[in-house]
Amino acid sequence: MKTLVIQLARLGDIYQCWPTLKALKSSGQEVHLLTRASFAQAAPTFIDRHWSFDTKSILKPLIDERPDVDQSLQSLRSTVESLKQEQFDRVMNLSYSPFSASLASEIGCAETIGYSRHDDRTLKIDDDASAYFYAQVGVGKHNRLHVIDLFAHTAGVAADWSFDRAPACPLLTETTKGAVVIHLGASDLAKTLSWSKWLQVIKGVMAGSDAPVVLVGSKDEAEIAEKVSAVFGARKPINLVGRTSLSELYAIIESAALVVGGDSAPVQIASLTNTPVFNLSFAIVNPWETGPRSAGSRILCLESEDSYTSEEISREILATLHRTAAQLPVLTCESQTSPYSGAQETFGWELVKALYMGELFPAQPSHLFLMGLQRLEEVNTLAIEQIAAMGKDATNQTAALILDRVDEVMAQIVNMVPETAPMVGWFQTERLRIAPGPLDVILEQTRSAHMKFGEVLSLYLDQGVAHEVAQLDKK
Amino acid sequence: MNNNQKDLAHFLKLASAQVKHRAKTMDPNDIGTLRYLQLLEDLIKEQEPKARKGA
To answer: In DSSP terms, which residues pair with A280 in a beta bridge?
Structure first.
């Protein structure tokens, strides 16, 4: 089988696809990978072919002094036609984005997994794993499945972590082996510490360990690294920022004793090389989804860099390095194949597991939750009535207008009662998966989705509870 | 949004206007080109500096 995997997101996302790509390759498939041109270096060497999507060449003609839409179209069409000519048996879109959905649809294939588009350009999500991704994955949501496992599940494989060792690298010397490798930067500055905080943290680490400290990162991060290393005297961090290719970085991380950083490519590489990580995870990231997977890793969640002092952070880094007990509340990773430990289950996660994995529905967390469900049931019942009305008269404008407002009202309820989000997300995604077609078919499938939603709501709402909530409402 | 992102957003807005204008002046029977214009529009939207993910 000839498979194209589309991964048009950033470096970290490409590395997180590696266990899926390896599994596909190990199963005997011909594996092609499409990434953005600027991230081509992150493509693994074990796949059959890498394709570059050159966004710049497509968009540049549009923003020149004399915009040339025809040239843009030609460049785009040429790229897509090349991919079409390969006649892939299957396209797997692991990018989960609007554009990648359009691209996957345009390449056209007998089997497309992940986001694509219907002929009317609406979003098409055929497989359940991608529907889960759409409904439940992202910052602020309750999901605790890692994207590496989600990618593998979407592809229908078990993640394969068996990678060959990196080839010899001249930068890997006796002074860089066994180092504490620190990545100061990140794709977003909100995902890392300020340079002054990093400076204090690194001082603390160097005071507590004889291991060499190696700074890594891209050329854009060189200024921060220079500022930090300039402060040190005779014993200073080895500054490799802006001086390594991705394959050299891979080799350095593979031989490191520990990697320290935020949500970034070096941390994702460390997951693949099974090098322990101390991960600083800020609020704009969901650590459950993108944290390190290497044995011995620890994740420290921070609201901001002021959440902990630099002494506390450097002590925790040293505890991770020396494998001594953690002092701060961290998530820990025992192995590449096991989930994180160190956090209690939340109602939201238990509700997600009940909706998707057949586990028991958790006990209601509060009266406010029940009130939220009551409101959802009222909206749901109203929607079913409008669908019935439209079934009798397809031109019923009043019913159509009311149905249009249903999502708006549900969003307000979720805003007031966030615990209802997994349920509403699940329902809205199932409704979105209804394909274009004759009106009577769409109405019936929409009605069916609302009925299923009602069944889930009724698990919590019975006569006694509904009465209790109604009484509360009167007060 | 920093200055680079503001510049990018400005250029992308111009690019989007170009593409939309092109789509409006096209023969609607040229479905193939229209689809590519829609693809281009999606690509432009995705470059805009904003939070990642979401469809």
So the answer is: A300
Q: Can you give the pLDDT at residue A474?
A: 54
Interface test with B, best of A72, A77, A96, A121 (most B CBs within 10 A): A72
* Top CATH class, A180-333: alpha beta
Give the distance from residue B4's alpha carbon to the nearest chain A alpha carbon, in angstroms.
Answer: 14
CB burial of residue A395 (10 Å; 0-12, 13-18, 19+): exposed
pLDDT at A329 over 90: yes
- DSSP-derived pairing of the beta strands A297-302 and A330-333: antiparallel
> Is A421 in contact with A373 (CB distance < 8 Å)?
no
Q: How far is A63 from chain B (nearest CA, A)?
A: 6
Whether residues B14 and A67 touch (CB distance < 8 A) is answered with yes
**How far is A341 from A288, CA to CA, in rounded Å?**
10
Q: Distance (Å, rounded) from C-alpha A408 to C-alpha A401? A: 12
The greatest distance separating any two alpha carbons of chain B, rounded to the nearest whole angstrom, comes to 42
State residue A227's pLDDT score.
Answer: 83
- The domain A2-155 having CATH identifier 3.40.50.620: the answer here is no
Query: In Å, how far are A28, A35, A383, A404, B44 from B8, measured between CA atoms?
Result: 43, 21, 42, 34, 11
Mutate to test the interface with A, among B42, B45, B48 (most CBs of A within 10 A): B42
Sequence ranges of chain A with CATH classification 3.40.50.2000 = 2-155, 180-333
pLDDT in tens, A381-416: 999 999 999 999 988 899 989 998 999 999 999 999
- Rounded-to-integer distance, Cα B50 and Cα B55, Å: 13
- Burial per residue of A29-61, b for 16 or more beta-carbon CB atoms within 10 angstroms, e otherwise: bbbbbbbbeebbebbbeebeebbbbbbebbbbb
Angle at A301 between CA A298 and CA A302, to 5 degrees: 140
What does the block give as tokens for A44?
């693994």
Position A224 scores a pLDDT of: 83
Contacts of A103 in chain B (CB under 8 A): 39
Q: Over the stretch A175-218, which tens digit does the pLDDT of each residue have?
A: 788 999 999 886 666 778 888 899 999 999 999 999 999 999 98
Average the pLDDT over A120-126 and give the result: 93
Pairing of strands A2-6, A30-36: parallel
Q: Which value does ipTM take for this structure?
A: 0.84
The most distant pair of C-alpha atoms in chain A lies apart, rounded to whole Å, by 84
Cα(A318)–Cα(A56) distance, integer angstroms: 43
> Chain B interface residues facing chain A, Cβ-Cβ under 8 Å?
11-12, 14-15, 18-19, 22, 33, 35-40, 42-47, 52-55
Tokens of A3: 């498979």
Asked if the model's pLDDT at residue A243 lies above 70, the reply is: yes
